[in-house]
Every structure is written in C-alpha cells, then in structure tokens.
Amino acid sequence: MLELQGLTRRFGTVTAVDAVSLAVPDGQMVGIVGRSGAGKSTLLRMVNRLTEPSAGRVLWDGRDITALRGRALRDWRADCAMIFQQFNLVQRLDVLTNVLIGRLNRRRGPLAGLTGLLGLFTAEERARALGLLDRFGLAEAALQRAETLSGGQQQRVAICRALMQEPKVILADEPIASLDPANAEAVMQALRQANREQGLTVLCNLHQIEVARAHCDRILGLRQGRVVFDGPPAALDAEREEAIFGDTAPAAPGPSGPARAPAPPGAALVR
C-alpha cells in the first residue's frame, strides 16, 4: 500500500501541496484532477522523490520512502516509474532501444549504465521489450527511430519503457495533455491495461475529468494543494466538480490525521 501522511511542499511563501494524507491500496488506479497549479505534478514528484517534501512522509508497505538515500533511493525510483507529458524518449534511437533503457535502473555496479548504452542488453531483455511493444501494438515499429512515431505512439513507447523497469507503481504526469482524443484514449487504455493485467498501482494526473471518470477506480481532486474530493467516479457530481474547478476559494481543510482508505460513496467531499 502507498501512503501519504501530511505530505507538504512549500516554495518560499507558496504552499504547492498542503498536508495531503491518503492511502492507495495495491492495484488501484487513481486519477488526480485539478486546475493548473493545483499541486498535481508536485505531489507525484514527491512520491518519486524528484522533489523533496517540506513536511510529511511517503510510505510504501510501511517503509518510509522519504528517509531513503543512495542505492535504496535508486531502487525505489526503479519500483516507482514516472511517465511524463513530454515522452522523454531519445529521438535518434530506435524504439526497441528506448524501451530497453528502462532496464538501466535495475543494473548495478559502476559500469551498469555504460553497458546498457553500448547495447549490451541480454537476449531475455530484448525478448521482453519486444513482447511489451507487441502487447501495445508497436512491434512493427521496433526498429524505427522514435522521432518517426506519432505523439500517441511515443507515449505508448514511454509506457513500455516504464514497464521494463518492472515497477510496483506507475506515476503518470499529464500523459495525454499534448495528444489528440484518439491517441489520448489509446494511451489511457494502455495504462489501464497495465493496471489490470499486472496489478500495478497507477496515479495519473489529468485535466480532463471525463477521462478520469472513464478509466480510474478513484478520483482525487486537488485545489490549491489541498484535497477537496476523494472518492469513486460515481460520487463526482456537479457540487464536487465545483469544489475542484470552480471560481470560489476552497474551504479550509480540517485537522490532518492519519492516512485513510478510499472514501466510501457519498462521503467524498472534503471540507
């Protein structure tokens, strides 16, 4: 289980994430929605430790992730794969090699990264990468340069690269923000497929609330760094949408407490 306990990030006088506490059971797909600047990206980056929290903790199966350093932190980042809006592929390399790069986080020793960059991947690793590409309809593009693919195809390659890490958690930061509706749907289906078939926990930042409704088990609404909604898609009615996206300021949060399980239907509006 992934737990956030009072997770907070301040940038000077600005509080980007404000005492967020929640628990995400293994295998759940959570859509995090909110306006630009609501704190969605900062929240995910703290889970992966790309951004350090100002206060609070991240726990995975009871282990304090915020206390990890060195090799232990690198292992967590392998277990907790990030997918970005910008794809972050090496455009001049072929698709297969881009997927294989996902194995570098699992290599150990001072020459681990160098051996990967020299193309010294094992036959087993290459077979696994090809299997992932085939699973997401990209096997025929394996030897094409990444720059020749559409945006939606590149994002699916990025998902394959993340899965090559054999992660336990996938953090997707606005993975469909720059895609047309058809490619956006293909990418969300790929994430949902990974979630269902491999039981991976997925946290996905989204602007489009209907996409979150269609693909996620649970929706988390952020407003000015605070959780203002936490519950199943069916509970996200007009009042709750207004709390997330409306023009009025959100109500002050109550006293922070321990991490909580998913909110039950009808009790999802956080005031």
Structure, explained:
α6 packs parallel to α7 (181-198). The strands form 2 sheets. The chain has a 6-stranded mixed beta sheet with strand order 6-7-8-3-9-10, with helices on both faces. A 4-stranded antiparallel beta sheet has the order 2-1-4-5, with helices on one face. It has helices at residues 40-47, 70-79, 95-100, 112-117, 123-135, 151-164, 181-198, 209-215, 238-245; strands at 2-11, 14-24, 29-33, 55-60, 63-64, 80-84, 169-173, 201-206, 218-223, 226-231. Residues 248-268 have low confidence and may be disordered. With 271 residues, it is α/β, with parallel strands linked by helices.
Helix content: 25-40%
Shape by Cα distribution: globular
Q: Structural class of the helix and strand makeup?
A: alpha/beta
**Total beta-strand segments:** 10
First-to-last CA distance:
25 Å
Under CATH, the homologous superfamily reads: P-loop containing nucleotide triphosphate hydrolases
**Biggest sheet, strands in spatial order?**
6-7-8-3-9-10
SSE order, as H and E? EEEHEEHEHHHHEHEHEEH
Q: Provide a count of the helices.
A: 9
Give the C-level CATH assignment. Answer: Alpha Beta
Number of domains: 1
The CATH topology name reads Rossmann fold
Q: What would you report as the Rg, rounded to the nearest angstrom?
A: 19 Å
Low-confidence stretches: 248-268
Overall mean pLDDT: 86
Largest sheet: 6 strands, mixed
Strand residue content: 15-25%
Any guess at the CATH architecture?
A: 3-Layer(aba) Sandwich
